[in-house]
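Students often ask what a holo structure prediction actually looks like on paper. The answer is less mysterious than it sounds. You provide the chain, you provide the ligand, and the output is a string of discrete structure tokens encoding the 3D arrangement of the protein together with S-adenosylmethionine.
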Amino acid sequence: MSILFELADIVKDCELKAKKLLIRESILYSEEIVQRSENTEKLDNILYYGDNINAILDLLNNGYKGKIDLIYIDPPFYTNASYSKQMEIDYLGEKKVIQYKAYSDIYKNGFKEYLEMITIRLFLMRELLSDRGSIYVHIDFRTVHYIKIIMDYIFGSEFFLNEIIWSYKSGGSSKKHFSRKHDNILVYTKTKDYIFNPQKEKSYNRGYKPYRFKGVTEYEDKLGWYTLVNLKDVWQIDMVGRTSRERIGYETQKPEALLERIILTSSDDESIVADFFSGSGTTIAVAEKSNRSWIGSDSGKSSIATIMKRLATIDSKAYNIINFNKDLDIGYIKYKSISYDKTDRNTFRIDISLERYNLDLENLNINKKDIDIISEILENDSLSLVDYICIKIGKDAPIIVYEDYRFGKSLRIKESFSFIIDRLNDDIELNIIDVFGNLSTNDIKLLSQ
Ligand SMILES: C[S@@+](CC[C@H](N)C(=O)[O-])C[C@H]1O[C@@H](n2cnc3c(N)ncnc32)[C@H](O)[C@@H]1O
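The corresponding structure tokens follow.
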């Protein structure tokens, strides 16, 4: 049976399920607040690790109903494929590339299951949108026609604003069909009174020559003369390519320029911007750089590890981490030495030297063929597998006092480091994220305690 005849039932079922979820009692969650400084400003920014349905319900239960001005989502596209994350490591001076699964876009029960997954979440997301809010749903040719109909029902066809075509050059080409070089982004608003700050783009004059019309400002660049016009709905923006400086190694990473247009157009300085399928955290990073509050979520551990590191590299403000997944800690650090000294300012300098990183291979989700090489690396150069390290002080609202991460060409963290603390009796925690995205927490005990 064609999905056409099932579509109405799918939408009706999901509407009912969403209603039931909306009236059920608050769900339990665990919360950790991380601060990058002593400044105890309100922490608006939240990163959820877990299924986004829990993230959305948690927000609705905590006063975010009607509070979010912009939601952008880039869900799996129903490609029937798995996506990976790639990491380079420096193993005894030799570069090696490690690849492991980031997320799967495969559904046991096919397209119906995919549509149900999206539809129920769209119903719930609508509840979060403010009266001036917009939602951008990024998909492609495989599902856009179905999602458009579903969104017309959920958001109302009269609130359909645009279908943005994001076109790019990269990707493969075909001799059997026209090469597929665009994605579709459906935009709906909650009401007719929505935030819309028109952005400008260059429009080159015919022949790249100046027109010199009265009252029209013209500009010139390397290509020739142009005017600035309001953005059109076809956006030509390069994908994050192999050589791009933005590239993080997370497949399906979207370019910051794309999110910049969306965030600047459909949010203001005071807005909260949310992305419930955050992936490598492009929306979060652009929202942070544009001084917006943000909320992100992802069910993949490598995504959360990628986002935490991405935020560290842009020296982000403090944010909350809410963890629904509660994975086992499968990594442990062994110290060479931990010592402290009183400074002349009555504070304490802690010196730490790391010896090795151990990883429980039984619980590491990688291809069997890679186990041997990972065991070898663990034996000979285990610290090359550490991607990010941070020291947090205090239990309730921990402050980050030291942070280090592998970045660009520098493929190793510092194995010996120091930091300053005020009191010896504070809780000190060392967090490590390894190149596979495993987060582990190690308490640091000072001898006097
Ligand atoms: C296409 S990627 C997003 C890429 C992102 N826009 C970027 O620029 O990196 C889709 C993401 O959705 C996540 N995901 C899929 N189903 C999810 C769910 N039910 N809850 C939370 N995250 C989910 C996947 O782990 C994946 O990281």
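The pocket of S-adenosylmethionine is lined by residues 51-52, 74-76, 103, 250, 252-254, 277, 279-280, 282, 297-300, 303 (CB under 6 Å).
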